[in-house]
């Protein structure tokens, strides 16, 4: 007798999908995930988790095979931010004991790119705290990007906040391949996590960089007290914006941040979230970002059956596991590190 899983929503048998395998097949035929299906993914009973992941893996393997893209982050300006994002250890509200420094020098950024390259990363992410870059800060990033592109076969992604008119164009001319600006959460929940800028500000930044031809990188943070409906809304908003590269962060509570104490995730839920993002954005890079080690723990490898990318080494203000442990995990799975793009 077969025991094919029947997806349920709030305990009611779902008629929207006969099985997860069938859902994967439909998605591979370009049928978009519906909100009901997305909610069913997040409500998958734990005993059906492996069936769900197997279906997510079918989709992931179709577009990315068994390759894993490594990204390397460098926090080039830390803390001192005037914004009030209540999850962030660098905000004006945070009393977290983190390093605080102004924009690093061009030489330090280029040295960071070398470390990224040596770590087998395909992308070097230049991340600065703050609402947006001053022209002087932008000059320093631009000088570094020119030198990096002259010396390393590596993609460069800049994450500098809200850009002023003309700044995106200058970054593109310098060779920046990607610009990261996360939506962070759903439009409805956004007001619960920050008051100094709006969801619309974030969407505008993303559409502005896309309009001049920079590939947008945009994702979110899960585990800040939002509902499943909010998580599905985020995944769909990224689909509507046609985001190529989607980092999925799991909220890492840092003492001294206003949201500290919030803990809504477990490893199985994180895996369901990754499956949701894969189904909603089947051909896009889905990256397990901050909070991977903290929230997935011993189940990290399973995340790569849905996601196709991770950060190697540390995050902005928290530590990641060693690059060697990441390489071993990828190797043990029979997966392979994706090659860096040609210069
Ligand atoms: S997330 Fe960015 S804008 Fe918000 S407080 Fe942190 S550094 Fe500032």
* Helix share, percent: 25-40%
Estimate the mean pLDDT confidence.
Answer: 93
Shape: globular
Q: What's the architecture in CATH terms?
A: Alpha-Beta Barrel
How many domains is the backbone divided into? 1
CATH superfamily, called what? Aldolase class I
Largest sheet: 10 strands, parallel
* Annotation field: number of helices: 12
Low-confidence stretches: none
* Highest-level CATH class: Alpha Beta
**CATH third-tier fold name:** TIM Barrel
Topology, please?
Layout: E1 8-9, E2 12-13, H1 20-28, H2 35-42, H3 49-64, E3 67-77, H4 106-118, E4 123-128, H5 135-151, E5 155-159, H6 167-174, E6 178-180, H7 199-211, E7 215-217, E8 220-222, H8 228-240, E9 245-250, H9 267-280, E10 285-288, H10 292-296, H11 300-303, E11 309-311, H12 323-332, E12 336-337
Helix pairs in contact: 1-3, 2-8, 2-9, 3-9, 4-5, 5-6, 8-9
The structure holds iron/sulfur cluster (SF4).
Iron/sulfur cluster (SF4) binds next to loops.
Structure characterization notes:
By secondary structure, the chain is α/β, with parallel strands linked by helices. It has a single domain (62-337), classed as TIM Barrel, CATH 3.20.20.70. It is built from 12 helices and 12 strands. Strands 3, 4, 5, 6, 7, 8, 9, 10, 11 and 12 form a 10-stranded parallel beta sheet that branches. The chain has a two-stranded antiparallel ribbon with strand order 1-2. A hairpin with a 2-residue loop joins strand 1 (8-9) and strand 2. Helix 2 runs antiparallel to helix 9. The chain is globular. The mean pLDDT is 93. The protein binds iron/sulfur cluster. The site of iron/sulfur cluster (SF4) has 8 residues, from loops.
